[in-house]
C-alpha cells in the first residue's frame, strides 16, 4: 500500500470525520445459564485464556468482551460510541471465539483502508489501567499490518499514535493470538492518561471485499 494512503488512514482514525453508524454488536451481558433455563453452565460461555478472578481489577469498554470484570463503561450512543470509520468494515457475530459466547468478525468492505473504534464524548482518567488485552485471529493479507491505538483529548484535537501489534505477538497466520499491550507504550507515543477519549481504535490497510479478522477478549487490567 502506498504511504500517503496509510497516512490518510491514521488521520481518519484520529480525527474521525463522518465516523459512520454506531454499532453495538457484542455489548450484551453473558447469560451463565444454559439456553433452556436450567442451572448447568452454558458450554459455549468461555472464560477466556486468562479467566477473571474475584478481587482483580478488569475493565470492559462496552464491546468485544462478555466474561467477568470488575468495572465497565457501557456503550450508550450518547457519551460512549462504537464507530465504523467511513463504513470501511462491517461487524458480525461468529461462533469461533475464545471468551464469552461468540467473537466478532470484522469484514473488509473493499476500501483502500479500514478502521473502527470506541470513542467517548467525556474523557476518562486511565491512571489505574496498565495493560490493554485483546485476542485476534486471521489469515487474510488485509490484516497483516494491524495497528491498535488509544487517543486522548476532545474530538477536535484528539491525539494518539496507533501501535503496530506485530511487536506484541500478532501474525495473520490463522491462529488465535492473545495480545497484551502496555498502556505505557501509548503514553510514550503521546497519550495523556488523565484525558483518554478513546480506549481502543483499530486500523489496517485495505484489502479484498470479504477478507476478515476475528476479534474477541478486549479488556484492560491494572497490572
UniProtKB/TrEMBL annotation:
Classification via InterPro entries: Exop_C (IPR041443), Galactose-bd-like_sf (IPR008979)
Matching PROSITE patterns: PROKAR_LIPOPROTEIN (PS51257)
Domain spans labelled ExoP galactose-binding-like: 130-208
By what name is this protein known? Answer: ExoP galactose-binding-like domain-containing protein
Q: Name one Pfam family in it.
A: Exop_C
Region named Disordered: 21-43
